Amino acid sequence: MYVQQSFHQPTHSHNAADATPEEGNAGASDSLEDAVRDEQEYARERLREELKREPTEDEINEWLRQQTEGY
Predict the structure, then answer these.
(1) Distance between CA atoms of 31 and 37, rounded to whole angstroms?
(2) How far apart are CA 36 and CA 17, in angstroms?
(3) Residues 6 or more apart whose Cβ sits within 8 Å of residue 13
(4) How far is CA 1 from CA 4, 5, 7, 50, in A?
(5) What does the alpha-carbon distance between residue 9 and residue 6 come to, in Å, rounded to a whole number?
(6) 3-class DSSP state for residue 60?
(7) Which stretch of DSSP H or E encloses residue 43?
């Protein structure tokens, strides 16, 4: 079966150079925000198990700082 390829220009540009800064970085910032949320949730779960209670935001931030300090 032969599939014809079209070489027409797209009607809507997905080029990052044509996008506003908000549009061009939307995927990157979303994935970065997702990574931060995932990291904080992981830290919260670890501390919850260790402390046998819900950790405070300060405890979570301190735990994350300690984990990344060696890098």
Answers:
(1) 10
(2) 27
(3) 19
(4) 10, 13, 19, 61
(5) 9
(6) helix
(7) helix 26-51
Tokens of 55: 């950790």
Residues 6+ apart with CB under 8 A from 64: 39, 40, 43
CA atoms within 13 Å, Cβ hemisphere of 44 = 9
The type of residue at 29 is S
- Say which amino acid occupies 23: E
pLDDT tens-digit map of 4-28: 554 444 454 445 455 555 555 567 7
Residue 44 near residue 60, CB atoms below 8 Å: yes
Cβ neighbours, 10 Å, residue 55: 19
Task: Quote the pTM value.
Answer: 0.57
